[in-house]
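ok so I'm stuck.
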Amino acid sequence: MSLVPPSGVNMRGAVDLSSLVNRPPVSTPGAPAAAAGAAPAAVPVPSLTLEGTDANFGEVLELSMTVPVIVDLWAEWCEPCKQLTPILEKLVAEYEGRFVLAKVDVDSNPQLTQAFQAQSIPTVAAVIGGQPVQLFNGAIPEGQVREVLQRVLQLAAEHGVTGTAVAPEPTGEGDDAAEAPVPVEPELPPLHREAYEAIERGDYAAATALYKTAVAQDPRDQMAIAGLAQVGLLARLQGRTLAEIRAEAAAAPGDLDAQLLVADLDLSGGHVEDAFDRLLALFPTQDPAGKNRIRERILDLFEVIGRDDPRVAPTRSRLTALLY
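replied:
not stuck anymore, here's the structure
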């Protein structure tokens, strides 16, 4: 499982940030526990300490369905962060995969910073079963951190999240044992690599320009076309809150821009059918220019979820019926 996808890899399912703030935090016991006698799942991860970004956090949410994830929101300039992060890194190793640490640089990932409502840093939260749990702010002693983690693990067990993350063991330089060959990922074109690097640092404008260049050079570059659509979605939602987007759409049902944006929000949160239903219901009420914008947005969202997604064909049929 690649929690930080290689450059140019499809980002489908990796932008579920609105669902993070939309779900109620896990705060009370009583959720169904894991089935009696069932062995906890073992989940392979590249490392017990991962880099969480706006672009890849959907995979972190997926991981949290099996293993609790501790989220450390930090910044390079933050002195208390330099005290706390090493403690978290030490404890994640000590607990041997009972939880995973996702480090989020707030300067590079504004959507996650907003989603976790980080008013100051360091801010530490957990994600259990895809749902957020606010833990604490500021640097606290190791003993207190350990107590918090014990409560997180207890809460995770109450909600049936009892898996173990398994990371590759480091190989010493003097190890003479034969090593299995490591699969080499195919080399990506320079423009795709640069675009992903731009996404990682939150520069969606640069990523968009790079993907457009790639498409101009090869109009059949499907990876660049999909990347362009996905970055466009991230850029449109950047700096906007879930409540703000929904309030604007509710207050102005005839505002096409507001309705297009709330459809983006629905899709980014995994509510794909809701997004398409909203746009198709809005279509007959628009003038020709508005209808064309809706058509283009639907086609754009097809690229985001993938043309082979089973929800594409019925939506395309409904759109065709409206057009003709």
